[in-house]
Design a protein that fits this description.
The chain is an all-alpha fold. The protein contains 10 helices and no strands. The longest helix is centred in the N-terminal third of the chain and has 15 residues.
Length: 168
């Protein structure tokens, strides 16, 4: 029984990462291409990794980030939603989706995703800052300022400016 529990824990620990070495090779190529500025080439390699291993959550998330960068919002949202389905405890996926929602002016969706992200990672200052901005847009200044303050405590530089601008 103990062995079964240990095996289940190990499998769940690596659920977001591919177990297929060929998929991981494409993932690694995609990382290098993204670092060198070859965004479209990187997306193509993430797509290859996903084709080989459709459960490769990290490849979906990284591709979502790049698609968002290119302005491909619907595709980015599809990828980040797939990431969350595959790995619902991946806090940065909720922060990414919150950022997409924020840019689409879906402030309620941003707040919901940031709240989940913060629940999963209480040190996610990006989520606090985004939630603060969304609260401000929804006319909830008290919560906005509290979120900016927490983001600043966690090291956010942009929250400093946001607090100065929105919490007068």
């Amino acid at each position: 029984m103990k062995k079964l529990i240990l095996v289940a824990f190990l499998i769940s620990s690596f659920a977001g990462w591919s177990q297929n070495p060929i998929a991981y090779e494409h993932f690694d190529k995609a990382l290098r291409k993204a670092e060198s500025g070859n965004i479209k080439g990187s997306i193509a390699d993430y797509t290859k990794a996903i084709h080989i291993d459709p459960l490769f959550a990290e490849a979906y998330l990284n591709r979502a980030l790049l698609r968002q960068k290119l302005g491909e919002i619907e595709s980015a949202m599809d990828d980040v939603n797939k990431t969350i389905i595959l790995d619902p405890k991946k806090g940065d996926a909720y922060t990414t989706r919150a950022d997409i929602n924020y840019k689409a002016k879906n402030y309620k969706g941003t707040i919901d995703d940031c709240t989940i992200s913060i629940r999963l990672n209480a040190k996610d200052y990006i989520a606090y800052n985004l939630r603060g901005l969304s609260n401000f847009h929804l006319k909830n200044k008290k919560n906005a300022c509290a979120d900016f303050t927490k983001a600043i405590q966690l090291g956010s530089q942009s929250a400093i400016q946001n607090k100065k601008t929105f919490c007068k």
